[in-house]
Amino acid sequence: MSDIPFYHGTKADLKAGDLIGAGYASNYGQRKAATFVYFSATLDAATWGAELAQGAERGRIYIVEPTGPYEDDPNLTDQKFPGNPTKSYRTRDPLRIIGEVEQWTGHPPEQLQAMQDHLAALRRQGIEAIED
User: Fold this and answer.
1) Which of 22, 59, 101, 129 is at a distance of 20 to 30 A from 6, taking alpha carbons?
2) Which has the higher per-residue pLDDT, 84 or 131?
3) How far apart are CA 60 and CA 13, in angstroms?
4) Which tens digit of pLDDT belongs to each residue from 56-85?
5) How many domains does the chain have?
6) Is 1 domain-assigned?
7) pTM for the full model?
8) Does residue 84 sit within a domain?
9) What is d(CA 34, CA 24) in angstroms, rounded to the nearest whole number?
10) Has residue 109 been placed in a domain?
């Protein structure tokens, strides 16, 4: 296990020991089968994941460990944040849940709405938030 804590934000109700893997419907966009599983070493990035995932369930942030190799998330690091300051990653191998962050603070409503509006504008342009 890494010394760095990794997080995954979602609305799925899971428990310690469960695996989060690729091949299932993505939490975002057109919900096509995900090629990668995304995770971060920052709570802020995981918070966005928990808040923006599709579904009516409450957002959750899990502490995870990769079970295989991973790489910088090119959707963020190449396009928006060179050098990966968001500490965002992706893997084709499952993430093992080792715990849940029970108490976390979401983004302010106006910031969340601005992000949702931005993602809606991208969808209208035919741009997916995550491109594999």
Assistant:
1) 129
2) 84
3) 8
4) 899 999 999 999 999 988 876 555 556 677
5) 1
6) no
7) 0.81
8) yes
9) 6
10) yes
Contact 91/72 with Cβ under 8 angstroms?
no
In the 3-class helix/strand/coil scheme, how is 74-126 assigned residue by residue?
HHHHCCCCCCCCCCEEEECCCEEEEEEECCCCCCCHHHHHHHHHHHHHHHHCC
Is the CB of residue 95 less than 8 Å from the CB of residue 38? Answer: no
CB-based contact 35:86 (threshold 8 Å): no
In a domain, 86, yes or no: yes
Please provide residue 26's backbone torsions phi and psi, each rounded to the nearest 5 degrees. -65, 155
Over residues 92-124, the pLDDT tens digits come to 999 999 999 999 999 998 998 998 888 778 777
Q: Identify the CATH number of the domain in which residue 46 sits.
A: 3.20.170.40
| Side-chain-side CA neighbours of residue 73 (13 Å) | 22
Q: Which domain holds residue 33?
A: 6-124
Which residues make Cβ contacts (< 8 Å) with residue 64, sequence separation at least 6?
6, 7, 8, 20, 39, 95, 96, 97, 98
Q: Which residue has the tokens 């899971």?
A: 14
